[in-house]
Design goal:
This protein is of the alpha/beta class. The chain contains 17 helices and 20 strands. Strand 7 and strand 8 form a beta hairpin.
Length: 559
């Protein structure tokens, strides 16, 4: 095994001279390239994946109108995953989450006017079909964003219902037999909190987010039938699942009813496709979204670890100890399993509703941004990456700023024909987006730097793919090795296991593995994540970790 790895590393080093991101620095391949680059990786076949979240509007423009589209995603699919496991410079993500693609009057498209069509700004259904087919050829699953707690106020259902109510003679009671869409929404004659008036008709409708998003009446069987029809349409096309938006708003303030609705939705989705994957946004405290696993849903986003006030950021800032990261992982795995034995965690670091992470750390040279991404990708479950985080994009304040164009290349960098073609696909960004000044270089520049944020994230995903136990295993923290600056934890799934050791400090740390008997079998350095040219070293039972580094140790084959 060791001779094979050495041979692979030698072959890789020869190829690296020609391959950009994995190129040589000062005549020497990076340690990540030498060790991680020689690892065998395969394609995931279950729900434990690495998912790339795409805001189509800002990702890549194929037709020159400044707005990203599905053909643009297709053109850049090789960047996300080129289908050749372990080769090339793709991210090796094995699932894509498309933010809403349905027709909508807004740029974000969370207020649909038609759940079984593609917004013309994004292209056609043929474009979608081509993208889906290409994804599946590469072993990539595709999930769609589905908001069923509300529609657009311009949806035909709502327009017909509101016109009907406005036309009612004074004193006449509305009837679903006269207008079936009357029962699709929550209408009232009383002005209430969270309700919006329908002109001067004396009627109001529930709209918890804003007036342009009337809430659906999810107690209506007809509405539920419509939702089932939507899922049948997309799953029938081959879509692999759905990201469920704002599940706490199905029945605002009623968690039990939300859980029951999710249980119903899961049952219906699995009736259509038993292999469907469902992940939900339950933006609440961990104690609350943990209980939502009683619904039997596959995954819930792990908000405790995410954002500028989340556990990952606090550990990287030094506000929390390194060991607290592992302790929290171990505790949450037990917590979630107590509600749903088959749960799949959905860790993420940032998303489209949060300020981007490059702004979290003052005077950061990129090291802390890298470590934070590494922590997210060393968590169990199906890990999610928001587009652009892999290159440290910035964006905060208004939502539009958090959804700025993917930072592919600048005009100054566009020298070759290929680079000029890439520049033509850079999007304009959402209307009313402020000026977003990036802190770190473009993807084009970062692909040439073996120590860039982009290359670091690629290697973190590579480790997840090379060692499936990282995503699928359960965590055991080694208290004798863990503390303020070090988190040491074994990730185990049956007979498969790795030892993950993390240095969250800005100084070199030496870890004596002999101090914990559980650690001593792990005598092979199986993978590394480093933020600069300072390397991880394993000398006997002494593990030397440079600043902000992560080591994956394995038990040699045959032992």
């Amino acid at each position: 095994m060791k001779r094979w790895k050495s041979l692979m590393a030698l072959m890789l080093a020869l190829c690296l001279v020609l391959s950009g991101c994995s190129g040589l620095s000062d005549g020497k391949a990076s340690q990540m390239d030498e060790i991680n680059g020689a690892l065998e990786v395969g394609q995931d076949a279950d729900d434990y994946r690495t998912t790339y979240e795409v805001f189509v509007y800002s990702f890549y423009d194929s037709d020159g109108d400044g707005i990203g589209d599905l053909r643009g995603v297709l053109e850049k699919l090789d960047y996300i995953n080129d289908g050749a496991a372990g080769e090339g410079e793709d991210l090796e993500c094995s699932e894509i989450w498309l933010m809403p693609i349905f027709p909508s009057p807004t740029y974000h498209k969370y207020d649909a006017t038609d759940y079984t069509a593609v917004d013309p700004e994004y292209g056609t259904m043929d474009d979608f079909d081509a993208l889906l087919e290409a994804c599946h050829k590469r072993g990539i699953r595709l999930i769609l964003d589905l908001a069923v707690n509300h529609t657009s106020s311009e949806h035909p259902w709502f327009l017909e219902a509101s016109e009907y109510l406005k036309s009612l003679p004074e004193g006449q009671e509305p009837s679903a037999s006269d207008c079936p869409y009357f029962e699709y929404y929550n209408f009232s004659r009383d002005a209430q909190s969270g309700y919006t008036p329908i002109g001067d008709s004396g009627w109001y409708y529930e709209s918890r987010f804003w007036s342009g998003m009337p809430d659906l009446n999810l107690d209506s069987q007809t509405v539920r039938d419509e939702i089932v029809s939507v899922m049948e349409f997309w799953l029938g096309k081959g879509v692999d699942g759905f990201r469920l938006d704002a599940v706490t708003s199905y029945y605002t303030g009623y968690h039990e009813r939300n859980v029951a609705f999710l249980s119903w939705l899961k049952t219906e989705a699995e009736r259509i496709n038993p292999a469907v994957y469902l992940v939900a946004e339950c933006w609440e405290d961990q104690s609350v979204y943990a209980e939502y696993y009683r619904s039997g849903l596959d995954s819930f986003f792990d908000f405790r670890f995410a954002g500028q006030d989340g556990l990952i950021t606090n550990v990287v800032r030094g506000a929390r100890s390194a060991s607290s990261f592992g302790d929290a992982l171990q505790a949450e795995e037990e917590l979630y399993a107590s509600y749903h034995g088959g749960y799949v965690n959905a860790p993420f670091y940032t998303n489209h509703d949060m300020a981007r992470s490059a702004g979290y750390y003052a005077s950061d040279d990129g090291s802390k941004t890298k470590l934070a991404m590494g922590l997210n990708l060393m968590m169990t479950g199906n890990a999610f990456i928001y587009y652009g985080e892999e290159i440290g994009m910035k964006g905060s304040g208004d939502d539009e700023n958090k959804r700025a164009p993917m930072y592919w290349i600048t005009e100054e960098e566009a020298k070759t024909d290929d680079q000029k073609a890439l520049l033509e696909g850079v999007c304009d960004g959402p209307p009313n987006m402020g000026k977003v000044v990036m802190k770190y270089p473009t993807l084009t520049a970062q692909m040439e730097d073996p120590y860039s944020i982009y290359c670091y994230v690629r290697h973190a995903i590579r480790l997840r793919n090379a060692y499936p136990v990282i995503a699928r295993g359960r965590t055991s923290v080694l208290g004798g090795l863990s503390g303020e600056n070090i988190c040491a934890m074994i990730r185990m799934d049956g007979n498969d296991s790795v030892l993950i050791v993390i240095n969250t400090s800005d100084e070199v740390q030496k870890v004596d593995l002999s101090k914990d008997a559980m650690a001593t079998p792990y005598t092979e350095l199986g993978g590394v994540l480093i933020v600069n040219q300072n390397e991880v070293k394993l000398d006997g039972t002494t593990l030397t970790l440079p600043e902000y580094s992560i080591a994956v140790l394995t038990i040699p084959t045959g032992e």
